[in-house]
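pasting for the record
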Amino acid sequence: METGWLRRFLLPDLNGKFVLRLLLVAAIAVVVCTQVLVPLRIEGRSMEPTYDDGGFNLCWRGRYLFSAPERGDVVVIRFAGRRVMLLKRIIGLAGDTVEFRNGALFVNDAWVKESYVRTPSDWNLAPRKVEPGKVYVVGDNRAVHMDRHHFGQVEQERIMGGVLW
């Protein structure tokens, strides 16, 4: 059995073709990991149990190229610069009225069953209308007090994409 192919694969000749291939692969990897599939390390418990603190995921930047975000989508939001992003769930679209009554979500005065929320909450939030060009986002972990959550209206243009899985 010939093992020359394995040696050539693992230890290739450092010629011009190899260097060109290496540069091309590196350039493609940089573009993919900064513009198409942005790696995310999840920090914080606001999206538990759907996404765990310390977990890893990818932001699919192409998710909303040909469609608008919908209620219930989990999105990646640019919070500050390009390094700080939030993972949140859309609960209201432009024109919707959103409110919490004793932990229950109401959109346009209709109760919304949220199967992804596992822990009861006592959140109370007066009705508020989502402005044009914005969505209303919140985390799934409602056991955490409202004061400790980042949530509310966000400009739709701040949505970087959706999570891959």
